[in-house]
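name: query_chain
kind: protein
chains: 1
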Amino acid sequence: MKVLIVEDELMAQKSLARTLTTQFSDMEVIGMTSSVASTLEWLRTPGNAPDVIFMDVELSDGDCFEIFRQQKIEASVIMTTAYDNYAVKAFEQGSLDYLLKPIEIPALKRAVERCRQRTAVLDVAAILSAIGEQKKQPKERFLVYVGEQIIPVKYSDVAYFFSEDKANYVTLNSGGKYIIDSSIEAVIDDLDHDAFFRISRGFVVSRNCIKTVSKHLSGRLKLKVDPSPSFEVTVARARVDDFLKWLE
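structure:
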């Protein structure tokens, strides 16, 4: 089977490609794209005809559903994301399966087998139940390393996480700020999604630190948070609708 991987994180691209070729001898990765625009260009190039597409939901220039709006997809599609709230929408677009990150091998094998069978009828209830089983219980605390010190931090004390100048930070409700070793992707995986929301690629905000929300340029939202960072905090346009639902 010929595979296209649509994923905006380079490391995740390479990791999935390596896993697929290692676990499935009949799979060949023939393309990797990172955005709505590059995926549409790839799909419209003569000769590019994948059997299976592994497609991340949130891409660098919007969500993957825009691809379905602009291009008829003949291949089997397996959605991959760190969030389970896109599941129903994914199935409405004809996705054969839906994998939560980090992707576990048994779930991946199930998805690939479903592609091989390519049945027209999806057992949505069973898949949504499986998604629920994959969801992790959020952790209560994590560790921050400052020189020789190890500082335990409760997630309930966190105002937000953010990336800046190729480093990742956590800011506490008290105003304390620490460098963290984890990537934003790894941070998201440990959070309670009722308490935290990823408003952009490099910013994850807690519900309790949000003071005001206002309209901003290009369909985005501007947040006033406490403690206030040295930069403007905005919700990416592609995440505005989900953010407002979460905020309710």
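note: The chain is about 30% helix and 35% strand.
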